[in-house]
Amino acid sequence: MSAGTEPLPWTERELLLLRGGTVVTARGRELADVLVRGGTIERVGPGLEAPGAHVEDVAGLLLTPGFVDLHVHLRDPGDPESETLESGLCAAAAGGIHHVFCMANTDPVNDAPEITGALCERARAFSPIQLHPVAAVTRGLCGDALSPFRDLRAAGAGGLSNDGLPVESPRVLGDALEQAHALGLPLMVHAEDRGLAAGGSVDARVAERLGARGIPVEAEDVGTARDVAVALERGAPLHVCHVSTQGSVEIVRGARREGASVTAEATPHHLWLTYDDIPEGDADFKMNPPLRAASDVDAVIAGILDGTVTCIATDHAPHAPARKARALDEAPLGAIGLETSFAVAHTALVATGRLPLERLIHLCVDGPAAVAGIDAPALAPGAPAQINVVDTREEWTVDPGRLRSRSRNCPFKGRSVGARVVGMVCGTRWLRVPEAGATAS
């Protein structure tokens, strides 16, 4: 049985005391215990006692709020070879992700309330992780007729996106933005000019070395400028997925300075890797947007530091190994990242001194929750128990064969990272995360 098919060992804990950890939130850190009763945080503070509680010793470990991921592809329904709801939510749990927003480019496309409702019902039946299906902006992702937003929201949709494809008509995008805003649904765009992208595989600046078709940075920059302009003209919120270029960061920055309600996310792979890291012929490093230059990575991190980029999202995009084994121009786009997201971001940003740990927590919790319009997980009395236990003391080496996704297309393979989620509390459920994704360094 592969790691991706093994159920996680959740246990019921009506009264649970996490003792001796360091509580870390976006506001700071403190040595404290956390007492959970009936799925709700009852007390946070040092030296707590609770007769009859199950006690977990978390001395030397961090306690953080549960993470929120706005951008996940679960391939369900339609492609069980690459991922299923079960394997994807298992990987999310192992990565400390309590809220999963799954994209609509499935088979069939999630453009109907029946599909949205079925996903929510299935997830509730086997996992305490909260699933928020992101429904298609347009029917069939075709770009013309809008999906039934109101019915989708009633069925449990947590947002709207054609991710993988831009909404190419400015009129259709504008109408969608207005309707989504009226319903309180975030609309997330894959900002790209497809004519400029021209079906490319890698950044144009490295295409010759890799012998593959190139995607110019202008494809993202032009797409971002157009989508932001439509949002400004319509006066509606817009969320830009996976910004990766210096130009797109500057466009979002300018819009926010003008007071526009425009937000943006960055992926862990665009915060750590560059196109110089791509081994020749290795399609596990093929994603869209493609890996960029070091100057673009620096620009995205600068956007995080000044508040232009407010979220980290995985863009987890699994593909069955046989499909990724093809040549670069023939293989599908995308990389997995649910189980490695926090570890990679911590290694790239916190361990290097570029970002305080508290700011990383904001990017993984408060920032994405604000975009989604949900209550951010919090380590405070009265809050639902959505807690991660994180170990930053030892390095581990990413081994895709031991990750919980059904796919193996991980660009961090063989790299050492310095943080791991070792436990989590979801309501009354406690999980000590097995080291399926780690080998000793």
User: Tell me, what's the shape?
Assistant: globular
Binned, the helix content reads 25-40%
CATH homology-level superfamily of the largest domain: Metal-dependent hydrolases
The whole-angstrom Rg is: 21 Å
Number of helical elements: 14
Overall residue-averaged pLDDT value:
96
Walk me through what this model shows.
This protein is α/β, with parallel strands linked by helices and 441 residues long. It folds into two domains: 3-63 and 382-440, Urease, subunit C, domain 1 (Roll), CATH 2.30.40; 66-372, Metal-dependent hydrolases (TIM Barrel, Alpha-Beta Barrel), CATH 3.20.20. Helix content is 29%, strand content 23%. It has 14 helices and 22 strands. The protein has helices spanning 85-94, 113-126, 149-155, 170-183, 194-197, 207-210, 217-234, 246-257, 268-272, 294-305, 321-324, 341-350, 357-364, 366-372, and strands at residues 11-12, 15-25, 28-37, 40-45, 54-57, 62-65, 67-72, 97-102, 130-135, 159-161, 187-189, 202-203, 214-215, 238-240, 262-266, 311-312, 386-391, 396-398, 416-417, 420-426, 429-432, 438-440. Strands 1, 2, 3, 4, 5, 6, 17, 20 and 21 form a nine-stranded mixed β-sheet that branches. Strands 7-8-9-10-11-14-15-16 form an eight-stranded parallel β-sheet, with helices on both faces. It has a three-stranded antiparallel β-sheet with strand order 19-18-22. A hairpin with a 2-residue loop joins strand 3 (28-37) and strand 4. The two termini are 25 Å apart. The relative contact order is 0.17. Residues 437-441 have low confidence and may be disordered.
